[in-house]
């Protein structure tokens, strides 16, 4: 198997070099990007398996870079945030970040999170295993979820940009259409990160999904909230 290519974007030269050296010693092909613009240029040439992206950078910050990435690409992104940057973490999750890790960075924790996110990608129907075992499509309101291609197709025929995590959420909900899926189960089956009762990342991601698929996200008709329990796909 080819070593996964990881792009590390941080304006702190010492930190990004340290992360790249550490990941390189552990079987990853890690490359550095000094700022958001250079990351976007590198992605245009060759999209990576995963990007590690700092939130606070001069010029184009990590949130702006993430927003640009999510308009075109679905590869996973792990955000680097300061411990106190709760708002940045929430915004990042809403925009489609797959995970986050606080600074100062624990390299072993970062490695573990990268491996977890990449495993989730491999378990996604984009991977050959699912392409050979899943067939067909399912309706998501007026849209179509292409199970074999891991695509969400709007009623007009155009693709709706979607992250691997968002696909996983829709897949779990569609497998249980008409039944309530608890937040705990969504975290277990779609997130694969471990959870606690106060984890709100699923709520943020469902909110982001609704903005993409609902005619009126404030009054959802496709993904219903069942208060105190979870969510249900109609």
From TrEMBL:
Gene3D superfamilies: 3.40.50.2300, 6.10.250.690, Winged helix-like DNA-binding domain superfamily/Winged helix DNA-binding domain. SMART domains: REC (SM00448), Trans_reg_C (SM00862). Keywords: DNA-binding, Phosphoprotein, Transcription, Transcription regulation, Two-component regulatory system. GO terms for cellular component: cytosol; protein-DNA complex. InterPro entries: CheY-like_superfamily, OmpR/PhoB-type_DNA-bd, Sig_transdc_resp-reg_C-effctor, Sig_transdc_resp-reg_receiver, WalR-like, WH-like_DNA-bd_sf. One of its GO terms (molecular function) is transcription cis-regulatory region binding. The modification 4-aspartylphosphate is found at residue 54. Residues 135-234 bind DNA. Residues 5-118 form the Response regulatory domain. Residues 135-234 form the OmpR/PhoB-type domain. GO terms for biological process: regulation of DNA-templated transcription. This is Response regulator transcription factor. It comes from Parvularcula maris.
